[in-house]
Amino acid sequence: MKKNLVIIFTLFLLSTPVAADWSPGGVAMYTIEHGTVNGGIYIEGGHGMEYTTSYTQNFTVPNGTIKWARLYVSTKDTPWLNVSLNGHLLGNYTDLASNPKVYANYRTDDHGMYWAYYDNVAYHIINGNNTATADLGSRVGLNTKSWGIMLIAVYEGGDRPELIEYWVNQGNPLLHGNHPPFTLHHNTTNTSFVGITDVNNVTNATLWTAYIWGSEESDIQPHDTLWFNSQLIAEDASDGAGTDDQGSSWRGACFDLEKWDVDRYLIRDNVLSFDRGEDSILCPVVAVLVLKRALESAPTTRVVQQGATILPAVSLVVTPDTLDLGKITQGEQSKMQTLTLSNTGKSTINVTADITDTVNDLYISGLLLDFDDWSTYSRSILTGETADASIMLNVPDDYTEVGIQEGKLTFWISKA
Amino acid sequence: MFKNILIFTMLCFIFTQTASAIGVGVTPGNLNFSVQAGGSDTKSLFVINTGTEVSNYKVYVDDDYADWFDISPDNFNLSASENKEVTLKIKPPLSVKGEFDFKVYAVSSSPSSDFSVGSGIKVPVHTHVSNTGLMVGIILILFVIGAGGLYYVKNKKNNGKNT
Hints:
The complex is a heterodimer.
Chain A: H1 2-15, E1 30-51, E2 54-61, E3 65-76, E4 81-85, E5 88-93, E6 102-108, E7 111-118, E8 128-135, E9 145-156, E10 162-170, E11 175-176, E12 188-193, E13 202-213, E14 225-228, E15 231-235, E16 256-261, E17 270-275, E18 281-293, H2 301-307, E19 314-319, E20 322-323, E21 337-343, E22 349-356, H3 362-366, E23 367-369, E24 372-373, E25 378-381, E26 386-393, E27 407-415
Antiparallel strand pairs in A: 1-9, 1-10, 2-8, 3-7, 3-9, 4-5, 4-8, 6-7, 10-18, 11-18, 12-17, 13-16, 13-18, 14-15, 14-17, 19-21, 21-26, 22-25, 22-27, 23-24, 23-26
Chain B: H1 2-16, E1 22-27, E2 31-36, E3 41-48, E4 55-61, E5 69-72, E6 75-78, E7 83-90, E8 98-109, E9 115-130, H2 132-162
Parallel strand pairs in B: 2-9
Antiparallel strand pairs in B: 1-3, 3-7, 4-6, 4-8, 5-7, 8-9
């Protein structure tokens, strides 16, 4: 009987599904970008805690071609997060607790501490002065605020290009004691930077850390510590003392962005550990590892791979890449324009069309491809051949919107 | 005369300008995964900018299978002729097995304009999920438990005889 019970219990354990990834301690930091560039990386942010419905942060981005960028915004107790960069709307997040681009922790009822990211910023960054603005709602609630806006931009070239390899880790692990509203301690969290191909030719290794919550500098308890491969590199790393590149001191002592020299501790696979010490709450959100190498000893497996010529199995080129259908009014039809679709892959392709990113139905209801409704468009193009697609727009008689009408026409291909 | 030369030069300039093109290419043209329940499998997809300008690229999978995949990187810029290796790591839920067909999407978009044009590729994906490993594991565990039980019972009987 006892034997049967053991077997049944074992089978029960084996058939139990794996638990979901949700964690009340926030989301552990993980690598979201790793690459190399001959240029530089710009990491800045600020300006500290401010109770407001409109939070603005300026950035001075160096010269160079932006290759990758991400803008981060922290906020608390707001119904939405509507962010723009240099006047370009990046997105209005209204579903903060469930949006995959928003990390939420410290949730109580409908309130939460949010760390959101925007990955569509690279096109809107300019060399020089940039302004990011976060709209946090129509009124200041009890705790409506932001601790800061942060920008990471990887650029190629520039005034003093250097060969760098970088890892960007993001998340929002929440470390805390067992004080209300928490019932358990959560003291430490780790994040990794793995797969350094050649440690020996690294001339400089810099670690950046960003926090949106830590102890204040004046508190007397033993503060948080920061460890790199089990070596202590900073005490009270989240001290909130510092300034942004505009010269503004961070307010409120919560936001903190600093860099640390980790040359001597660097190994192939690295572990960064955050320990809250006696800080009541500690919330690290970004860690970036930047390695500099001498130019002559640069080639690594990754660099060689990126420089190789890779011929596509399936490919489509559309010329031109923008359309101006002109100024037209209700009941009118635009002039016809022609796009050329070229099959530059090694296989015959089938082409269809789709329209997205439209605020209203103008393009969806009025766009004609080859004199027919765009949704019925279907062509087959042999390898090495081209096909023309004529485009016209009919504006309905009852169309009432005015101004520039945005939209995107995408030609989708699949191997025939 | 000078005016005519100027007009001719301007016309030449206008007509010799080439329009910018947007493009996307991938290789391979299709992906096949074979994975055991609870395990993972990783494949690479190279995304190539076949256009003439810097473009932004996104790589994603059908919504129904999004939770199965870790795609890295899934959003990046490429200069003309540049390529990027995208790693697709599949880890299906323990509860599924069988054959699955869906798509991975690689889509390009040009810098924002009023009405932009993009190009995208739907890459067919075939996935075979088996639970052979899991079954072997269960059988092995049951075998070990059974053998242990038999040994225990036999040992107890022997002890009984000895006393």
